[in-house]
Amino acid sequence: MNKVHVKTxxxxxxxxxxxKGVQGKVMSVDPESRKVLVEGxxxxxxxxxxxxxxxxxxxxxxxTPIYASKVMRVCPKCNKxxxxxxxxxxxxxxxxxxxxxxxxx
Length: 105
Description:
Distance between the termini: 24 Å
Strand order of the largest sheet: 6-3-2-1-7
Strand content: 35-45%
Oligomer: single chain
């Protein structure tokens, strides 16, 4: 099983590509293909044909997945992109922390 360094509902910043520097919220993660779906990033337009009676057709905009290696987690406290580190608490719980400000993510 492949691991991805971000989880759903994390705030991330895009590091490369046409949306470089854009922040967004992770909507879904696919560890098998190592891709993430970020809100407002990599938006594409699709021409949709109506399939049922009364269903509207037209051009719709939707987010497309990008590789997880192109995004980095943003710390909610210092608001800087950081690679999450892990710390084991005294009760045995494993938590993610910011390497820059040492705050719990």
